[in-house]
Design brief:
alpha+beta, two-stranded antiparallel ribbon, 3 helices, flat, DNA-directed DNA polymerase activity, transmembrane, DNA-dir_DNA_pol_A_mt, transmembrane helix, DNA-directed DNA polymerase
C-alpha cells in the first residue's frame, strides 16, 4: 500500500481507488510464501505447516459478535458480575 501510494504521488495521482485501498485478507505465517496454504519444504525436505489468514468478512463477523457479547455483558446486574467472579 505504501509503495503504491508513493508511486501514485510521484506520478501526480493524489487519490487511490477504494478497491486498492484495503487488503482482502491478512496472512499469518512464519515463512515467506505467496499463499498460506501452499506446500512449503525446507532445504532438508521437511514440510512446513500451513499458515492461516484473517479475511475482512471474518473480522466483521468477529467484531459484531464481540460487540453483541459486550453489550450483553454490560447489561448484566453488577452484583451478578461480582458474584460470578468470586
Amino acid at each position: 500500500m505504501y509503495v503504491r501510494a508513493t508511486i501514485s504521488q510521484k506520478l501526480g495521482i493524489h487519490q487511490l481507488p477504494l478497491s486498492v485501498a484495503f487488503f482482502s485478507q491478512v496472512d499469518i505465517d512464519h515463512v515467506l510464501r505467496k499463499e498460506v496454504n501452499l506446500i512449503c519444504k525446507t532445504p532438508d525436505g521437511k514440510e512446513v505447516p500451513p499458515g492461516w489468514f484473517i479475511s475482512i468478512s471474518f473480522l466483521w463477523l468477529f467484531s459484531d459478535c464481540l460487540l453483541h457479547f459486550l453489550g450483553l455483558f454490560l447489561t448484566l446486574p453488577v452484583n451478578f458480575l461480582f458474584n460470578s467472579i468470586i
